[in-house]
Amino acid sequence: MGRPFLKMNGLGNDFVVVETRSAPFEPTAAQVRAIADRATGIGCDQLIAVDPAEGADAHVRFWNADGEEVGACGNGTRCVGWLLMQSSGKDEAVIETRAGRLVATRAGERLVSVDMGPPRLEWNEIPLAEPHDTRALDVVLYHHADLMAPPGCVSMGNPHVVFFVPDAEQAPAAEAGPAIEGHPLFPEHVNVGFAQVKAPDRIRLRVWERGAGLTKACGTGACAAMVAASRRGLIGRHATMELDGGELFVEWRADGHVIMTGPAAVDFQGELP
Question: What is the set of active-site residues?
Fold first, then answer.
């Protein structure tokens, strides 16, 4: 018998979701890559395992399409939160992750808010290989006219670098993303955001995700870009984030926590081969 899975997405950022109550699930990197392969597998940006947990509704693990296990995935957490709330009938779900405890709440029909916790802003929390001002890095990561202004760095349980560009559509995301992802400054590699501030409460964002490439949406990337822009005084404490797959609303509350709100959708179900 194959193992049942759900294919889900948050703004087109798509996931294969597996629950582990019936049997343990410890995929190898090669198995993750096989599942994520869009030509020969199921196809996804991330694989997600939903494990039983004491003192929480679930413990959740995430793997990027390249097979690497990672600490956080914002859109994936929203999708799992929706599943858990549908199962329990409650309006809240507490989720343990490698990056910490997250709380998902209902925000409307198929809309979910996730308290992503406070951003991590110190250089060693990102982490960087050496001390730098994370508000505005004083190092050139990629030689391109639109990327010479100092980027900001934020960790939302996973590392992000955010470039502020005049036009996100024209930013060299597909070329610069993979080059910057593996830059020596980032010992755990990095997600690369290309953000265009369109108004004091609106940002157009494209993200090259480490281990997954350009995706239609990145929840932690949206949170990181909003925080990075706010730290620079480019916006206030909340913004609508325009991603290729749709819009997320992100707020950096006065208590320091970042709240992300957006949709969750189920595409289909099946069995892993």
Answer: 73, 218
pTM value is: 0.93
* Domain interval for residue 50: 3-116+262-272
Using an 8 Å Cβ cutoff, are 258 and 116 in contact? yes
CA dist., res. 14 & res. 215, Å (int): 9
User: What is the secondary structure of 59-101 as a DSSP string?
Assistant: EEEEEETTS-EES--HHHHHHHHHHHHHHH--SEEEEEETTEE
Residue 174 corresponds to which tokens in the numbers above?
């597909």
Q: Which of 126, 193, 115, 114 is nearest to 154 (CA)?
A: 126
Together in a domain, 110 and 8: yes
Angle at 53 between CA 49 and CA 56, to 5 degrees: 110
Q: How many CB atoms lie within 10 A of CB 13?
A: 30
% of the chain residues with pLDDT over 70: 100
Residue 71 and residue 97 in contact, taking contact as beta carbons nearer than 8 Å: yes
Mean pLDDT of 15-25: 93
Q: What is the mean pLDDT of residues 87-114?
A: 95
Alpha-carbon span 233 to 31, nearest angstrom: 44
Does 107 share its domain with 191? no
- Is 80 exceeded by the pLDDT of residue 1? no
Instruction: Tell me the pLDDT tens digit for each residue of 144-167.
Output: 999 999 999 999 999 999 999 999
Q: Are residues 110 and 12 located together in one domain of the fold?
A: yes
Contact 229, 195 (CB under 8 A): yes
| Nearest alpha-carbon partner for 145 in 180, 181, 182, 171 | 171
